[in-house]
Amino acid sequence: MARTSYPRTALAVLSFAAFIALGACASGSESGAGSDSTGAGGGGDVITIGFAQIGAESGWRTANTASIKEALSRENGFDLKFSDAQQNQENQIQAIRSYIAQGVDVIAFSPVVESGWDAVLQEAKAANIPVILTDRAIDSEDDSLYVSFIGADFVEEGRRAGEWVSENLGTEPITVVELQGTTGSAPAIDRQEGFADAVAGNSNITMVDSQVGNFTRAEGKTVMEGFLQAHDDIDVVFAHNDDMALGAIEAIEAAGLTPGEDIKLVSIDGVKDGMTALAEGKISYIVECNPLLGPDLAEIAKKVVAGEEVEKRIVTKDEAFDQEAATKALPDRKY
Fold first, then answer.
1. Do residues 57 and 216 make contact, with C-beta atoms less than 8 angstroms apart?
2. pLDDT class for 25, splitting at 50, 70, 90?
């Protein structure tokens, strides 16, 4: 159940007051939305929120960060403390502890991986600071450690990609290779599960290899080069995100093959570069994962601080695109 009120303990109030009096500021890896730091606890109008981002590993993440910074602006009533973990869980944990020490009103973050968060989130809970998860979930038996999770259904994304492959390409025997996201991350685990479930009943589809590309274009290219050396006949690439698919395209073209013809690619995300490749026929199908989570996060944060009930799980609505749909969508694409 989401908690409806978050009173500060005496210790937290004194710590935050001391922090303000000393003119302390965020560490070098963090930046506020404004130079003054009047949080909801001090001025009553501005909500101080600490956001620990995963990094900048992909076009999706860049769009996600931009959406969060825009929505959690001073003009919208927020004082944002932002940190970039550079794909390192320990960096995120340190950032969250810094936010706890600063006495922010709300902590939000996108977990690098699913596990290993209980200790630091127990510290946030003890300090009566509500935590909101965005984009990715955590693996914990104690769901009181966070008040809400905003993000897509990654299993469903993988399932939709697998269903398209099964229905459109699996009418004859095909071999598939998989470019996985970061090991232990929710999207990598769930998208793999959804895709596997969707193609399990089709005897024409054989998964011949699956390797980690860490959601980056560079590693997607490197892994695809390995696939091409190891396997003589690859029909389809299933990439857990667009950036890895775009890297795979580079490797396929460097090998003298034509992406979309010799090897078909199916991906997840729907960022502009991916949609452009889809419109050009280099990618065959993309399941969207909307990165513009900032407005939802701002709304939930305001409700939580006001003591209102919030939904424990908020699933974003995503589309799916073939070449024709991508061509129509591109002119108005915001990310």
1. yes
2. very low
**Same domain flag for 147 and 245:** no
Residue 9: pLDDT band with limits 50, 70, 90? very low
The confidence band for 13, taking pLDDT boundaries of 50, 70 and 90, is very low
- Same domain (yes/no): 82, 161: no
Matching residue, tokens 């004082």? 79
Let me know whether 80 and 212 are in one domain: no
Cα 15 to Cα 6: distance, rounded to the nearest angstrom: 16
- Asked if residue 224 belongs to a domain, the reply is yes
Place of tokens 């009047």: 38
Expressed as residue numbers, the domain containing 240 is 154-289
In 5-104, the DSSP E strands lie at 30-32, 47-53, 78-84
DSSP state of 259: B
d(CA 185, CA 72): 25
Phi, psi (deg, nearest 5) at residue 241: -155, 170
Contacts of 245 (CB under 8 A, 6+ apart): 179, 220, 237, 239, 265, 267, 274, 277, 283
* Stated pTM of the model: 0.82
Non-local CB neighbours of 89 within 8 Å, separated by 6+ positions: 111, 112, 113, 116
Phi, psi at 333, each rounded to 5°:
-70, 130
C-alpha to C-alpha distances, 169 to 174, 214, 260, nearest whole angstrom: 8, 26, 12
- Whether residue 241 is found in the same domain as residue 304: no
Round the CA-based radius of gyration of the chain to a whole number and report it.
Answer: 21
pLDDT digits 0-9 by tens, 239-283: 999 999 999 999 999 999 999 999 999 999 999 999 999 999 999
